Amino acid sequence: MKRLFRLLLILGLAAGTWSCADDGTPSVSINGGTDFLSLDHLARSGKITVNAPAPWSVTLAPENYGQDEKPDWLTLSAEEGPAGYSEIDVTFAENPGPARSASLLFSCDGKTLAFTVSQSAGGTGFDAPDYYFYISVGTMPTLYSGLHLLSHDKPSYVSYERASTFDAAEFPDRAFVYPVADPTGHATNEELRAMSEAMKRRILEINAEDPTAVFGLWVDDLRCRLGYDWFVAQGIDSARVKVTMLSDGTATYNNFHNYFGDAATAEQEAANPAELQIVDSGWFAADNGMVDFAVKVQNPNKTVEAIDPVIEVVGKDDSGNVIFDETIETPGVLPDSAYYYSYVAGSTADSSANSTEVVKPATVEFSITTPEGSWEATDQKLADVYAVQDGGATDTQFGAKEFTGTVTASESLDGATQSRVDVVLLDQDGKIEGGYFKIVDTEPGQAADYDIYAVGAPQYASYAVYASPWPEEDAA
């Protein structure tokens, strides 16, 4: 913001003029009519244009220097000129010390006018202001501004909308709180405009009294433009303005969300998506050594789908030796969605070529990765797609569990005409024990029956049924 302020100031300085009015009285107009020029501590130059009905001259006021020397930090390219249009190049040397100022005396046709130039000190911090100005609308920034005002002893000026947020009578004498007609309500638009104009006038009055004064501005992010309007547009160099910007709060969030939120999030996630996460898993080994398992996969991204992620399943024996290491390709995982996948993995024999002994794993590890570049933007979420009606679980004559019910797809995803139904077994703490699945033909809006047989299922406390899309190529 400071760089922008300085750029706007330089552009305004180039347009500055000095002229003689109809009655011959000299007048100066820089950045809209001020009678001063304010720059930062760096070495720089600008122009003052002169339009005069008669020859003119400019000198440094005697109070700026002693009898034997003039200030060496300020140089004028011309000290006099003819009637009509002319220019003065004003050059400032870098200021290594405290702030400084000088008065120029313009004379034209027997009339004289003082014009002040000032240069800020370098390296002034946020504790440097001689005067503070506060402007806020929301309740929280008004409270923060009030607390700050009470933390120092500098002259302060308060502009606000919600008068009921504070009691103006409780402010210290050094603080001027602009009055409103209804101190228990809100300032009107006319009162807000009057406050703003009063602030601008007071800033110019202070500058006339002290050309090197440093200002502190506390403003919320929705009104930060006032930093330019009140100071820079009036000729105050931004180096003399220490801005503290507060969040308005709810309005800030709403504006960001409405103008930037969704598009920014999608663009950022597409460029650098967060990885899929396996947030829960469980497994059990059958008598033949094969492993039935289920995992819960979460896509933390809000706008991008993971295409064809791969689950890696690694089984190890008691000594940490790998018994099996398998990869399983899965369908896409929609954004901000949780998927449940049940599969079978493992080996029916140990790793020795001469042995057929069944070896059950002691541990099974799961991980999931998405191939590079396999992310696509979408506004679909899994929660919007399926409705599952659980029909219960029964024991069959073969010793298996049969889980039945219906699944209804509310819409077709990526051309899928089939759906995957997973029965996930849970322990008493709601953690995954394992699972079974089945592929079911589905049509959008029509309930489809499922029946899933669980052979060799372990003891479980409860179960849950989930559905997800299953593209035809994955079923083949």
Write the layout of secondary structure elements.
Layout: H1 2-14, E1 17-20, E2 26-29, E3 36-39, E4 44-52, E5 56-60, E6 74-76, E7 80-81, E8 84-92, E9 100-108, E10 111-119, E11 131-136, H2 139-149, E12 156-160, E13 175-177, H3 189-209, E14 215-220, H4 226-230, E15 241-246, H5 250-271, E16 277-285, E17 290-299, E18 304-306, E19 310-316, E20 322-329, E21 337-346, E22 363-369, E23 375-377, E24 386-395, E25 401-409, E26 418-426, E27 432-441, E28 447-454, E29 462-470, H6 472-475
Description:
With 476 residues, the chain is an alpha+beta fold. 16% of the residues lie in helices and 41% in strands. It has six helices and 29 strands. It has a five-stranded mixed sheet. A five-stranded mixed sheet has the order 3-10-9-5-7, with no helix packed on it. It is elongated and about 120 Å long. 34% of the residues are buried. Mean pLDDT is 82; it is low at 1-20 and 24-33.
